[in-house]
Amino acid sequence: MTVELQSPPRAGGPLDAPLRTSDDHERETRYVFVGLSATAIWLAIAAASIWSPDLVSGSERDHIPLAAMTDWLYAATATGLVLMAFARRSPGASRPLWTGFTIAVAAVWLVVALASIFAPTIDTSDATSVPITALVTPIAGVMATAFLSVFAAGSAGESRRESLG
Fold this sequence. Notes:
- The chain has five helices and four strands.
- By secondary structure, the chain is mostly helical.
- It has one domain (22-155).
- The strands form two sheets. The protein has a two-stranded antiparallel ribbon.
- Strand 1 (55-57) and strand 2 form a beta hairpin.
- The longest helix is centred in the N-terminal third of the chain and has 30 residues, at 22-51.
- The chain is elongated and about 105 Å long.
């Protein structure tokens, strides 16, 4: 009886790839949700900046695009809050938590965009038109995003709930 020795498989083959753990999958899922949340914020701000009414003032009816000049600051702040919530290492934070968070953030910023675009302006007697809603709603959107971010970052994940109860 003869025994044949075979050479070991070459490194780099499909069998040598490291196994993916659920933590890796959970981390990748979180990246998708943070990208969707940030995209929703910036798309809403882009729409509000483009289509919100301008500040109209002066005898020559000069148009000043206040929303386009100021909204990027609020979008950057809201994006930072979203990144902070996703950076929090919540043990047991699952996909439904991040899905709900992303949907809530997108809904908040959709309301911000729609209110900025379609809400009426304040017209004064000297032919000045002030788009007060286009200035106030992004601030409200940042505040709502802050509340959502604190809730998502501080919520107990499934493993913590099971150990508590």
